[in-house]
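Internal ticket - ligand job 182, adenosine monophosphate:
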Amino acid sequence: MSATQPKTFAVADQLKQLIRSIPDFPKPGITFYDITTLLKDKRGFAETIESLQDHYRDTAIDIVVGIEARGYFFAPAMAHALGAGFVPVRKPKKLPHTVRSVDYELEYGTDQLEIHVDAIQPGQNVLIIDDVLATGGTASAVARLVEGLEGRVAGLGFVIELTFLNGRNRLAGYDVFSLLQY
Ligand code: AMP
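stdout (structure tokens):
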């Protein structure tokens, strides 16, 4: 599956101009893509949601899952645009009801994400949204969480994909869509 482009290349260029790259953040050698500058631009934010929404126009989506924390900037807006519900996947010990957890690998060590056990009903079509697809470790862990609740992963959508990290390879078999590639 290849990265699909938004409506026009011009739109992608305009959106990229609204994203700020911060070299050596949070540590040397990492270029951090700061989307706060995109979010505060009313046209840029609207165009981002509409371009993502376009990709799922013919896909049945019941639930949009957002990944803490920056996935929350986009997932609820996407849920609203698609007429779906929103479900947060959170860092450990934040959700008050019974949870399912998943471990995933970080560069050093592991981390955990959690979802409420009753957040997704068996057979529901679930779209997973995050701001950045890097190595794909986070998104593939969330796909496992959703499937653990017998949800169907209808797609994984990202504003930004860091193609040189090949995160898509860890998401083989899923519909993976990103708006902007670096
Ligand atoms: P990964 O699990 O490697 O795909 O990392 C994805 C998560 O890390 C996303 O939730 C992003 O918010 C964050 N992330 C990773 N790399 C970057 C980056 N260069 N700029 C901004 N966020 C990043």
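Auto-summary: The two ends are 17 Å apart (CA to CA). The first strand starts at residue 20 and ends at 23.
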